[in-house]
Amino acid sequence: MKWRGRQQSSNIDDRRGRTGGGLGGLGGLGRGGGIRLPMGGGRGSRGGIGSLIGIVVVLGIIWVVTGTNPMDILSGGSSSGPSSSASSSSQLPASGEEAELRDFVGVVVKETEDLWSEVFAQQNEDYPEPTVVLFSGAVSTGCGEADSSTGPFYCPNDQQVYIDLGFYDQLREQFGAPGDFAQAYVLAHEVGHHIQNITGVLPQFNQRRQAMSAEDANAYSVRIELQADCYAGVWANYAGQQNLVEQGDFEEALNAADQIGDDTLQKRMQGFAVPKTFNHGTSAQRKTWFERGYQSGNPGDCDTFSGNV
Question: The whole model's pTM is what?
């Protein structure tokens, strides 16, 4: 990915080295409803999102690896507290690599801002940019306390994306998904959840899931996670238009989607998969929807609620 030397986002909150505070869970889910982007359009056009429901906001590794229910983050409750022993994802890389990763995140986030600002402008709306929080070890959020084992996640209460940069070591070494475009996919996916939040998707799910069984809620969250994958693919298409994509980048992102599918993760961790517990989608589904967004470049083609996924 050709990212060096490009403009970085000003919405990066670097909290590395700080200790987590005690915000606890906050009520509400931030801004809901509001804009609805126009549907349709051909390749390269930025269509709308529409009125959908459902979300579990984390990348997809929490449930299998840590046993933490990601729905606790969605509802504004506390996630698992800081672990007593340091995880591999909480170890910061060497200072030079750390600075480069910080710059990389800033560039990718800026590119997502440019994309979604363009999409929202088509509806004569301003895009409310999220803040991306970098932390190490543990962090206080509008959705409660979290630690590095949580993985990257989006908190709808404070409209912020959280990531311990050490996760990228885990993505490469533990999950077999190396490459800077795989890393960019992670960020673009979480920003996709921000889009779902500010267009009312997350608030709707928070209301409706109270009447859902756990299995039904999982099924809805799969559809929303796949939509976030599709939005990440839309960003990848935009990155290509900005001449950022190099040979092999698309394959890096597809491999990452493959490695963090629910079925692949469960088989890796416990030797078998339990489909009714899936809440992010299978490897095949995640690759399919990322590729759909990438090929189309149109958010309106990311409707994961019509028919089978």
Answer: 0.81
**In the prediction, which pLDDT does 19 show?**
55
- Measuring CA to CA, which residue among 210, 226, 198, 208 is closest to residue 282? 226
Bridge partners, residue 134, by sequence: 14, 163
Beta bridge partners of 14: 134
* 88: amino acid identity, one letter: S
Instruction: Enumerate the H helices of the chain as residue ranges.
Output: 62-66, 71-74, 95-121, 167-173, 180-198, 201-208, 214-241, 249-259, 262-270, 283-296
Q: Are 188 and 59 in contact (CB under 8 A)?
A: no
Cβ distance 293 to 237 under 8 Å? yes
Residue 111: CB partners within 8 Å, gap ≥ 6?
A: 6, 235, 238, 239, 242, 244
On whether the CB atoms of residues 179 and 163 are closer than 8 A, the answer is: no
What's the token pair of residue 111? 């590119």
Closest CA to 3 of 178, 246, 186: 246
Digit-coded pLDDT (tens) for 269-306: 999 999 999 999 999 999 999 999 999 999 999 999 88
- Sign of the dihedral defined by the CA atoms of residues 104, 141, 233, 110, in that order: negative
Q: Dig out the tokens for 240 from the structure.
A: 């290509």
Cα 250 to Cα 263: distance, rounded to the nearest angstrom? 22
DSSP 116-160: HHHHHHTTT----PPEEEE-SSEEEETBEEEEGGG-SEEETTTTE
Q: Of 60, 163, 57, nearest to 108 (Cα)?
A: 163
